[in-house]
Amino acid sequence: MGRFLNLIRISWVIPLVLVVSIASLVLMLLARPISSNQEVQSQQLISDAVCLGWSEQFSEVTQKVHAINSSETRLANTTLGSQAIELQPRAVFTIDNFKSQKLRIITQGIAANSVSEFHYVRESKNGKSGAAIEACRSPLSEWWFGGLNTTAGFGTQLVLGNPDNTDVVVALRAFTQDGEFALAENRRIVVPGDSVRVIDLTRTIPAQNSSTLQVSAVDGRVVASVQVDVIQGVKSRGRSFIQGVMEGSELQYFASLPVDSVDGTIHLLSPLGDAAVEIYAHTKDGSFPVAGSENIFLSEGVVETLSLNQLGSRDVSMLSVQSDVPVVASLTFLAINSRGGDWEAISPIQEFGSQSSVVIPDGASNVSLQMYSPVGDTLSVRHFYQKRLIWESRVVVDAETLKVLTVPKRGALRGQIVISSMNSKSVAGATFRFSSRAGTLHTALGFSNPLSEISPAFRLRLVVP
Q1: What is the CA 189 to chain-centroid distance, rounded?
Q2: Kindly report the CA angle at 333 between 259 and 326, in degrees rounded to 5?
């Protein structure tokens, strides 16, 4: 009997000891610190960009997507949609026949801020209807687009891309020269998860020669693009992206205004209150206020347009808009060619930081760079094609003085242009010209700050001293 009782005691003592031991171990682990690994943030970056396909209107187009790596590091962790690729140092990866509605490009790694993505569009048959190029952008909760024209001859469309799996509600507000425009049923739009939606702005904001659009994702993020086809009768007058900005600014620059342009117009909106604005011209001889623009007054929510022809600044290739409160600004013009002109919209550019790069679109016959610094700078300009340095130049930019540089032709103009700054206080733009049956076509890109498309990556880990 005693032996039986001892067995019973042992049968419950052993499990009790095990339970106590396990509980003690758990308490010890919980008592030890768990922290975020801050070192990971400095070593791992994520570049997340979405290219939105062109919504065809008046003619069929050929589209290309370029992903460029301006660093000396091979980037093995890059995905284009579902395709895993490697971005070679100083090289351009191209999708030649892009036909998708959207393409998400994600790069991870220490040099992710050296990756830029671009979407290039040109007419399929004879290339007469203009060329357009824009930088692919990261998803955001808010976008602003200025300089929208929805009069006869303009096909203006808003393209919304939702890269995430959940639906997003998007709120639209439009402003014209008469104030805010009533959008009725178009005030709220649902963009389903992992999809694209196209809004015809010629019906949403009809018969307006200048309007500004605010796009706000109520409960998520979207990528937005405005795409414009321009015709005059059966003759094409251009094709352009209007690239959105996150918010208004008190200082914004516009490069790439060609000398042979007409109908140059600056479009201005102050969404947060009345504003005082002044426009400055930047030339090789210095910077000065544009005559007639010293005392421009903007009423809140009302679009104002200023003709550059009347202001006498047509021959200036860089302008700046300065205001006492943030404003949304854009620039449109018609670059003259043998068939009349090539309509173009230019979005503002900001300081590009320590280094930035742009792709040279296929078929470019001339590449011109406009560089400006308010405090002076020394810039390194390099042209790479598939890892190989084709040409380089050291450019001294005096304070408040514009430098214009033509990239020399060393064979075909292709690859990428990389600009590095000594003090991170410069702005730069690139103008591309193309020869066609319609004469010279024009498009442009600004050198953007790559860190604006970068987010840090975090990882939690158990720390055991």
Answers
A1: 23
A2: 110
Q: Which residues pair with 79 in a beta bridge?
A: 84, 106
Q: Whole-model pTM? A: 0.86
Q: What is the DSSP letter of 140?
A: B
> Element (H or E) spanning 396, and its range?
strand 388-397
From the list 229, 262, 283, the residue with the least C-alpha distance to 402 is 283
Q: 65-103 pLDDT, tens per residue?
A: 999 999 999 988 899 888 899 999 999 999 998 989 999
Query: Are residues 49 and 67 in contact, defined by beta-carbon separation less than 8 angstroms?
Result: no
Instruction: Delimit the domains of the chain by residue range.
Output: 41-456
Q: What is the DSSP letter of 24?
A: H
CA distance 200 to 157: 5
pLDDT, tens digit, 9 for 90 and up, residues 96-136: 989 899 999 999 888 888 999 999 998 766 655 678 999 99
Task: In whole angstroms, give the CA distance from residue 398 to residue 101.
Answer: 44
Query: Rounded CA gap, 203 and 213, in Å?
Result: 14
Task: Please return the burial class of 225, using the count of CB atoms within 10 Å of its CB with bins 0-12, 13-18 and 19+.
Answer: buried
Query: Tell me, what DSSP letter sits at residue 82?
Result: T
Structure tokens at 50: 């979405």
Angle at 13 between CA 11 and CA 16, to 5 degrees: 115
Cα 411 → chain centroid:
29
Based on C-alpha coordinates, what's the Rg of the chain?
27
For the residues of 324-385, what is the DSSP string, one character each? EEEEEEEEEEEE--TTS-EEEEE--B---TTEEEEEE-TTEEEEEEEEEESS-EEEEEEEEE
